[in-house]
Amino acid sequence: MEIIESELKGLFVFKPKVFEDERGYFFESYNQTLFKQAGLNLNFVQDNQSLSQKGVLRGLHFQNPPHAQGKLVRVITGAVLDVAVDIRKNSPTYGKWFSLELTEKNKWMMYIPEGFAHGFATLQDNTIFSYKCTNFYNKAAEDCLLWNDKDLNINWNLSKPLLSEKDLQGKTFTNFSSLY
Question: Which domain holds residue 33?
Fold first, then answer.
């Protein structure tokens, strides 16, 4: 597995070795030893999965401390534009974002550490998105940044995404007080 740290410290891209033949394919989607070798000593406690149609945008979500979550995300079927925003106020990349297309074909994964807001836009119908979390979901700790915030200026390549009511009510980055 190839492990690449992005320009946002702590955010990693994983490109697994995929073994394909006439029967299909096989790859390791998680290997604790490889993660530890990359400096990621993680304990995943919850797995989540969603199904979305093309044009759905989910995010930018995060949980405030002490319920913050790290997430290992990947696409099982379909494709997404995955986005992570650094919300660690003392980070040199505070307010910067990183995006990557995750697809069933490339089988890449991204680890998004605590202190990042996360979202994705689906690029194909019937996209199944999966993520492992380092902490349990806590409704009282959840928060959301506005997906189309002008200060963040994220290029989602979508003009009219399908959004939840919660995502429509996200905070602007200038009105957001980071607890990280």
Answer: 2-168
- Report the b/e string of 87-100 with b at 16+ CB within 10 A: bbeebebbbebbbb
Domain assignment present for residue 175? The answer is no
Asked whether residue 177 is assigned to any structural domain, the reply reads no
Flag whether pLDDT at 115 surpasses 90: yes
67 is catalytic: no
49 pLDDT band, cuts 50/70/90, is very high
Whether 94 is covered by a domain: the verdict is yes
Q: What is the pLDDT of residue 122?
A: 98
Residue 137 lies in a domain: yes
25, 30, 61, 118: the catalytic one is: 61
pTM for the complete prediction?
A: 0.94
Q: Position of tokens 């200026």?
A: 153
Known active-site residue 180: no
Q: Considering 25, 94, 111, 131, which one is annotated as catalytic?
A: 131
pLDDT at 159: 83
Neighbours of 162 (CB within 10 A): 15
Q: Is the pLDDT of residue 176 over 90?
A: no
